[in-house]
Fold this sequence. Notes:
The chain has about 240 residues and is mainly beta.
Amino acid sequence: MGVIAFNGVSSADVGIEVEKFPSYDIPEKEYDIIHVPGRNGDIVIDTGTYKNVSRIYEVSIATRDIAFHRKMGRVAQWLYSASGYARLEDSYEPDSYRLAIYNKKVSIENLFNEAGKAKLEFNCKPQRFLKSGDIPTTLTTSSIIHNDTPFDALPMIDVVTDNTAGELVVGDTVLSIAANAGLSLTINSELQDVYSGTANKNSYITLNSGIFPKLVPGNNTISFTGGIQSITITPKWWTI
């Protein structure tokens, strides 16, 4: 028997038990395929992205403590509780999680009004995020961060400054911060956004390559100068 946690709520809290290991679906890689008339073979362009995958759980639902229709209502409320992607974890892959939505019809077999059986299919982003990638590391001097995965990670970087100009270097990316940007900034490479609380700070930064910082596979050298006092990196490691 297994357990699912979706949008911060455990399946055990709604009386659900997972009866079977879910299949492990490797996401489909996206290519742009272009056919040129008069030429043998298509032109294939690797987009570097992947399509969503399904995560399917075969579950049983106990209903002895409550009327069948009421329990099914609670299950539906749980599955549709998120308005967008939410964190999906299970006891089969305890070191990772996915970002998922539930957008399928729920069909639950009624077993004499005492139990139910169903297949729950979550629509997941292709990444399997490692929980170790959610652990922040604070740096007060130049350092090296090693990426053990084969994929570029898009980190979240919290910067503490003395409100004067500074420069942050992550690998090949140089990010310049203007004076008066504030005492703290968050650089979110996944969203390609810079903010302090709810205040947008994109106008205070300049990227030498136009690309937000990323942590490539292997060693990544990180340094900072000027008014930057320290940085805290949450790397967001992932794999498929």
